[in-house]
Amino acid sequence: MNRTTRSLLPLTVAASLLLSGCGSDSDSSSDKKSDGPSSGTIEITVSEADGCVAEPDTAPAGALTFHVTNVDAAGVTEVEVVSDQRIRGEKENLAPGFDATFSAKLDGGQYEIYCPGATTEKVPFTVTGEAPQTSDDLSVLLQQATVDYAEYIDTQVGALQESLPALVDAIADGDLEAAKIAYANSRVFYEKIEPVAESFGDLDPAIDLREGDVAAGEDLTGFHPIEKALWIDGSTDGLEELTTQLTADVDDLKGRTGELSKNTKADSADGDRYLPDEIANGAVALLDEVQQSKITGEEEAYSHLDIVDFQANVEGSLQAFATLKPALDQIDETLVPTISDKFDLLVAEVQKLKDPQSLGGYVAYDKVTDAQKKTLTDSLLAVIEPLSTISSKVANA
Amino acid sequence: MTTSDSFQSSRRSFLGGAGLVFGGALAGGIAAQGLTPGASTGSPAGSAADSTVPFFGDHQGGVSTAAQDRLMFAALDVTTTSTEDLTHLLGRWAAMASRFTQGEQVSAAPERADVPPKDTGETLDMPPEQLTITVGFGPGLFDDRFGLASRMPAALKPLDPLPGDQVLDPAISGGDLCIQACANDPQVVFHAVRNMVRAARGVAVLRWSQLGFGRASATGSGQSTPRNLFGFKDGTNNIKADDTAALSDYVWVGDDTDQPWMTGGTYLVTRKIRMEIESWDADFLADQERIFARLKSTGAPLTGSAEFDPVDFGATSGGEPVIDPNSHVALAAPQLNDGVRILRRGYNYTDGQHAGNGKLDAGLFFICFQQDPHTQFAVLQEKLGKSDLLNEYIAHVSSGVWAVPPGLSEPGDWYGKKLFSP
User: Fold this and answer.
1) Which site from A122, A133, A211, A299 is most exposed, i.e. has the minimal number of CB atoms within 10 Å?
2) A357 near B CB under 8 A
3) Which residues does chain B have with pLDDT short of 50?
4) Would you call B109 and A121 a contact, using CB atoms and an 8 Å cutoff?
5) Which residues of A touch B107 (CB under 8 A)?
6) pTM for this one?
């Protein structure tokens, strides 16, 4: 099966991405190393001559550190560790002559090191020992899915939190262009986890309400009034109050998702936690979001960043689905291949709109043709249809 | 028609051209193998025998490399404020340049049907045609954006206004970064610049660019001296690729620099010098020869009979100097300028026709390399701009100065690595 597991993150999202919540993440100019890699570090070297190379290509289960060096591959900007469509760790924004480090906690099993654009793009990577959940006990698999999902959400919310100071600083400095870039970067993380934020009732409205959604006289807070000020008014003036509130709301979100995550990992009956059917519903909800507000251009009416949100929603949905795969295979072995294939096609369509020159790394929505919108809608519906059936299957399992 | 003697022209000087070059006594030395990238001393540019100039080495190619036939020069403004974005661009450029100069595409990785090709493709199946790529940093890069203010070399200070600089056009002058691509085929130089500018999108934008169609200097000792668009031989005594002593004395930045990251580098000055073609064409031959102090036919100085004969500045005829003191040769001769020399590497250009007056828009895209533009180029241009007889026929319309960092040592090295990570 030809899986498309490319990251959907925009190029402009730089340093601290997926793994910022669960490992070190650093960039540096690649200096000649006088000593070898420290023990336990996997050296990933990307070069025109040899493509994507991992040394060693096997490691014991646990927290692994990957040191990536792009020697001279001008076409390569990212490296991922992938298993079964799940991105388990990645590093973005690579350039020839530079290196970077990321870490990932990996269970035993087969992985792929994926260097999109390299002369050899994929190499197998084996993690030995402490195999992942091999239980065919469905309840164990579903519990593991919630833990995996909790980790994904924690990482994204952490990245969202870390992305905000750039926006706050740009607005404080009155730097309009930097503020726009920071806005685009932050939106990505929020859009991946939106269903979780929505579950808290008050937080999603505070963070993501649009102008048309509030009654006259009510205060509008969150991203969109900032968006309007930056793009329509062309000004950063007077936004400090909004960014302060947004920062507080995101801090609140971090606290609450952290609590969910803790309860989920404790597998405790007390307290709120992620539930498998809610993850399934969330995966569908994200795609519904796309269908309702992104494909229409309503979400980012001023900045036209809808496709940036679009890809983030799709990635959030795919990652939610991926956590459920082992359990779904137990429930109905035909489900996963069907949905995975549809996701592949959707991801490929979104990839076609990638545009490194555009803010957020994707073409502005006002540049997307009607024919492209139709193709996107068709691909989207093709996923939503089978995906929408899994929630009840999981709930009734 | 020119008047004689200390004609004070309001026009630009024809940069050193002839002067510098013609004035000196010697053509380049002999022997010494080229020790730098592109120091292909033996074969004239265009030789099919060796169409590849080595990329890695102590110095960047395109400086002492035997001058190729074609140029595309591009100046860019950096638009990002992120140091990481900027350094990553310099890394991408290094990887691309290391491949383009060897006749390779952006990447050898297979293209995908559903995304734009990595390489624009117009040089597929073409040899590298001795392509060299030379990258430089303008003074603007050392402002407060990237924290480089303390690493600004004194030699990179913008040039003070020189005589005749009044008509410089800021829109086609300066720039934070520059790319000089030289090769023996115009499509090859265009491809290199196009793809590097493409890689810069979101980080830097094209400010101005210039195509050059015929080399206006000889920098290889095997190269014949070319003619400029005034029809005169130009570059007889240029510093040659194999003249390692002259390169070390006048061109390459040594250990005594104020900025160690520039050791092995050099400083680049560009001047776009528009020629008043129609006026020149109406000047009579003897006056043209008086202005250059050379014979048009052979390039011999007016005091000699062959191109490489030394110039006799003391010779008189009927009580008047044979070599006019305001001739190009006299004003720019090293022996009359405390020995100051520069390495010229310019190209003839035409941009077609002036939209306004219908005249030919053509001239010399002057390029020179030196250790310090302030004590080399500027000293010569000060004199030329003031007194050169050629000033009636030329105008300097663009100017730029860049620091050209040293050559890249190996795959993974990048332009300015020592500047950004000392």
Assistant:
1) A211
2) yes
3) 1-49
4) yes
5) 48, 73-75, 117, 119
6) 0.68
